[in-house]
Amino acid sequence: MDVFKVSRSGPLKGEIEVGGAKNAALPLLAATLLTDEAVTLRNVPDLSDIRFMVEILSHVGSEVENPEPGVWKLKAAELTHIAPYELVRKMRASVCLLGPLTARLRKAEVSIPGGCVIGPRPIDLHLKGLAKLNCEVEITNGYVHVDASKIQGGPVFLGGRSGSTVTGTANIVMAAVLAPGTTRIECAACEPEVVDLCNLLVKMGAKIEGIGSPELTIEGVEKLHGCEHSVIADRIEAGTFIVAAAITRGDVTVKGIPPNLLGAFLDKLEESGVPLKIEGDNIRVLPYEGSLKPVDCITLPYPGFPTDLQAQLCALMTQVEGISIITERIYPNRFMHVPELQRMGADIAIEGPSAIVKGASKLSGAPVMASDLRASAALILAAFAATGETWIQRIYHLDRGYERFEQKLAGLGAKIERLSDKDMPKELLEA
């Protein structure tokens, strides 16, 4: 099993290119099931989650080609309506098959995804939305069974206790594009990844109004066709690179990321004092002297501060004089990175849904465990500011969402290596 060996890194310098967004690519791949014609997706990141999704699509009948890096051509001429547990259990985003299978085949049988370390992510709003489209929905033996023989457009409200649901919105939009009549979705997720999905569907012949707003109006059509589409840039990867530059007081230009995708995040960094220069789709982090300012941050659905950048901000705030308060409103259990940061010397206390970060901590390298995708990134960022060596285990979490992460950062001067766990000092393995 691979591990990362990370050492304190001086100011990172240079340019770094942002890849395609994983959270956009996964529902886009699922959407290719809505037509029997070929759909070509470009700028698709090479990640384990992507490969899992392609495996599932192949299982349900899609013909899949990967003619060149970053390009996938999919043609779903013949489909089965069953997505089994042995495949779905590998990745929660596979629940996105529910909408297109329902729409295309008028029936679906999809295993309910398993649990997640950052807390429960129920699919009740997905099922509620399908029921509002006049589908019969039943859960038996761990599977969602959908009979959509009488599917019909109608009003759907998708608000939940944590706001709108991103994958739920994606599922209901995909189900509605082939449903007779008009569907009006209220409290739809406004995330850029949902916008990207809607833009693909429009290219395929869907009729969707209100894209990017919390109210979507969909006129069902009889058939969709093939097209080509390029996946949007990954705003979370971009934000992670920006924090890497800030925590090392570097001079880094993050290229290929429209700044509007990161509005709340950039606003919070500027509030802290991180000097930023924005030119078109390039964001440059400039060197700075002295200390940054602590922040009070709350994660919220888009356009609020993204939950997927909460752990990275937490790592940065350990190096800022004063007390920062980071409140998690999307996934209240998403503080699995905190105990590991504490092992490195961070002064953080959890009070309810908030992390209280007492900054200016002198971090030191330690053996740590990555618990999830974004926690992995946070530990690497903290290691850049720590004395000595940090060994990060279970980095397969990171490979789910960051493509060539260590190579890109090493290109900026970061001291990071991917090694086998056999290369870890024996005393650390026994710790």
Describe the structure.
Strand 4 (63-68) and strand 5 form a beta hairpin. The longest helix is centred in the middle third of the chain and has 13 residues, at 235-247. The chain has 15 helices and 26 strands. It is α+β, with helices and mostly antiparallel strands and 431 residues long. The chain is globular, with a radius of gyration of 22 Å. The protein folds into 2 domains: 2-19 and 233-429, UDP-n-acetylglucosamine1-carboxyvinyl-transferase, Chain; 22-230, Enolpyruvate transferase domain (UDP-n-acetylglucosamine1-carboxyvinyl-transferase, Chain). Helix 1 runs parallel beside helix 7 (192-203).
CATH homologous superfamily classification of the largest domain: Enolpyruvate transferase domain
User: Which CATH class of the largest domain applies here?
Assistant: Alpha Beta
Major sheet attributes: 4 strands, mixed
**Number of helical segments with 4 or more residues:** 15
Estimated helix fraction = 25-40%
Coarse morphology: globular
- Count every beta strand, where a strand is a DSSP E run of 2 or more residues: 26
* CATH fold name of the largest domain: UDP-n-acetylglucosamine1-carboxyvinyl-transferase, Chain
Function: Cell wall formation. Adds enolpyruvyl to UDP-N-acetylglucosamine.
GO molecular function, one term: UDP-N-acetylglucosamine 1-carboxyvinyltransferase activity
Pathway: Cell wall biogenesis; peptidoglycan biosynthesis
Keywords: Cell cycle, Cell division, Cell shape, Cell wall biogenesis/degradation, Cytoplasm, Peptidoglycan synthesis, Pyruvate, Transferase
